[in-house]
Design brief:
By secondary structure, the chain is mainly alpha-helical. The protein is built from 7 helices and 2 strands, in the order αββαααααα. The protein has a two-stranded antiparallel ribbon with strand order 1-2. A hairpin with an 8-residue loop joins β1 and β2. α1 packs antiparallel against α4, α4 runs antiparallel to α7 and α6 runs antiparallel to α7. The radius of gyration is 18 Å and the shape is elongated. About 25% of the residues have low confidence.
């Protein structure tokens, strides 16, 4: 069993290196998968402090106030970005993973925010994959947990592959392929969560997986409901 785990890890890491190489050649994505933590300048990172600005999103229930306010973002947040993120299921995560890293030359429109979101998602997926791999290699990890981690490693590799296909679909303006790949990401992240739930085991990467799931959900909302070629 330990030998099979080790072989699986080697295959997974090999896939990651291969994906990183291909994205450097064919897409804006470029990362060093050998890093177990996301660089501080990456879109998946959230700055530790902000000069607060209050902003509002519509409250879906009619009996409550029309708007709910938050105060976590810098003063420079573009209102157009707030509107795009406000139409996602997780607006806070949408804003905090994109706003601090948008350059002046990036148009604030759904397709460009989707690309930034995919880049951030790749960073977070690689971070989760590195964590899952480390735990799988740890001899103290119980076998039931290791089995679930194998499922997660497969799922995370699939997300990386799908993200590259998302960027390819954007480049050729293929809405059908874009929708299919974004939807497959949802299935992949749920496969990891379901593995732990079915085994009735607390996931050691639960928080990381939860944020990744929210980012994937947001990318689906933007890509399917807002991007029009």
């Amino acid at each position: 069993m330990e030998i099979n785990h080790f072989i699986l890890v080697l295959i997974s890491l090999s896939c990651l290196f291969s994906f990183s190489a291909s994205t450097s050649a064919h897409s804006p994505l470029s990362y060093d998968i050998s890093d177990s933590e996301v660089p501080s300048g990456s879109p998946a990172s959230v700055p530790s402090s902000f000069d607060g600005q209050s902003f509002s999103f519509p409250e879906p229930e009619g009996d409550k106030p029309e708007f709910q306010s938050f105060s976590i973002l810098p003063d420079s947040v573009d209102p157009s970005l707030q509107r795009i993120c406000g139409d996602t299921d997780h607006p806070i995560e949408c804003l905090t993973t994109t706003a601090p890293f948008l350059g002046e030359k990036i148009a604030i429109e759904p397709v460009s925010i989707l690309k930034v979101g995919i880049e951030a998602m790749n960073n977070k997926t690689k971070e989760a994959l590195a964590k899952a791999t480390m735990l799988l290699l740890d001899p103290s990890t119980p076998k039931p947990v290791a089995s679930c981690l194998e499922t997660c490693i497969d799922s995370y590799n699939a997300i990386l592959e799908s993200d590259q296909k998302v960027l390819d679909a954007i480049s050729i303006r293929d809405l059908y392929q874009l929708s299919m790949e974004l939807s497959s990401n949802v299935e992949n992240v749920h496969a990891c969560e379901d593995a732990f739930e079915e085994a009735d085991i607390e996931s050691p990467i639960k928080e990381m997986g939860s944020l990744l799931g929210k980012m994937i959900s947001n990318s689906l909302a933007i890509g399917v409901d807002m991007v029009h070629f």
